[in-house]
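Readers of this paper often ask what the protein records in our data store actually look like. An entry from our holdings is shown next, in its original layout:
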Amino acid sequence: MLKNNFIKISLTALFMFAAVGVNAGHPMANEMKHESIDVPEGVAAPQLSVEVYPDMMSGFNLHIKTKNFQLEPPEFMANKPAVGVQGHAHLYVNEKKIARVYGPYVHVPASLLKDGMNMIAITINDHHHNTWRYQDKEIIAAIILNTQMENPVQSIHSPFPVTASIANR
């Protein structure tokens, strides 16, 4: 199904997938019941970048990179963020919320994926689970994977300009 090639997809954008959580027509709308919250005025927009790597045993590994956002567990909520805003991420696989993410690395086991097309989405949230929003757009990264393809990353969804590259090593 997959070669042991290194496959990297890098998504970098200020905002990803506008208003997914509040758009009733979107497939994740039922799972994303949290409110959204605006990044405070005068604070730099959080940036979200995700790298996807096939795992040697099962599924995929994600490396979540942020800028102007402090990804951390709620125990640190009382600490003022060093830059931007703080919180954690929510991981969705095929429209279902799978986990809260408190650090930059997460494994998505093959047991969570269907044979064929899958969507993995990540939102960044405050510690009350509200999705961070900048200029009326929720900050979300979404990747479409096809587990039946040698190069599984099929597409990136965003209404905004995004830099994307797929490299095999």
Observations:
- The longest strand covers residues 85-93.
- The radius of gyration is 15 Å.
- The mean pLDDT is 78.
- Residues 7-168 form one domain.
